[in-house]
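Structure first, sequence second, as always.
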């Protein structure tokens, strides 16, 4: 009787081992944490509890590259358009292409495709209101980089012109035009009073993590960079820098 039970136990173990051997990638993907794993020929990144990151950006501190994991948890390659309409290009290894050109298109320091169209439309005009300057192009308004009257300008997603700020490696002076003369005060790229859009295109760029709280008094956000640098926002305005 004992021998019969022992044989059954051994048989069960052999079946389990055979199942794992027939699908080793799946088994490894389940158990591995905080690392890249390959599943059916595709790469995903498992978090600290072994779940794949989905529909989110991921910054790999080891190789210092940005990646995007899609809704299936698979590492993005090629062109991708985000919810704000910005386009990014990811190389064959999944890393984000920055400060380069691909297929005739230029991508900036944040990886977003730069529209280098020069607008000489007679219907285009500068318009100023209580918030700032924006540039009307027919029935729409400029967003992103624009070359106007022999100068480069940057317009936020809201349409308003950026000024007195360093966007990645490019300093925009008080008139909004790109300039090589960068004041020392802009060396860090961020300062209190900036909007979230301004911070995203600054030297700080996109955070590794965002913690958000909404109360009846407003919306409060903590942006985490590399685990030890923090930016704090109240209703979309930067109030505190901690590093």
């Amino acid at each position: 009787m004992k021998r019969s039970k022992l044989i059954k136990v051994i048989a069960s173990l052999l079946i389990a081992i055979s199942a794992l051997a027939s699908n080793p990638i799946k088994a490894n993907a389940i158990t591995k944490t905080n690392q890249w794993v390959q599943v059916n020929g595709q790469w995903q990144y498992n978090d600290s509890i072994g779940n794949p990151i989905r529909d989110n950006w991921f910054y790999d501190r080891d190789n210092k590259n940005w990646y995007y994991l899609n809704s299936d948890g698979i590492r993005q390659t090629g062109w991708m358009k985000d919810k704000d309409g910005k386009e990014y290009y990811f190389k064959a290894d999944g890393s984000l292409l920055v400060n380069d050109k691909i297929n005739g298109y230029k991508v900036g320091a944040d990886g977003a495709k730069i529209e280098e169209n020069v607008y000489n439309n007679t219907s285009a005009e500068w318009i100023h209101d209580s918030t700032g300057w924006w540039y009307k192009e027919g029935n729409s308004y400029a967003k992103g980089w624009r070359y106007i009257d022999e100068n480069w300008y940057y317009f936020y997603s809201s349409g308003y012109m950026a000024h007195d700020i360093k966007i990645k490696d490019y300093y925009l002076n008080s008139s909004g035009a790109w300039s090589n003369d960068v004041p020392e005060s802009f060396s860090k790229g961020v300062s209190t009073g900036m909007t979230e859009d301004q911070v995203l295109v600054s030297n700080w760029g996109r955070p590794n993590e965002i913690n958000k709280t909404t109360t009846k008094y407003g919306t409060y956000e903590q942006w985490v960079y590399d685990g030890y640098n923090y930016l704090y926002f109240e209703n979309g305005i930067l109030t505190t820098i901690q590093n």
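Margin note: The first helix runs from residue 2 to 22.
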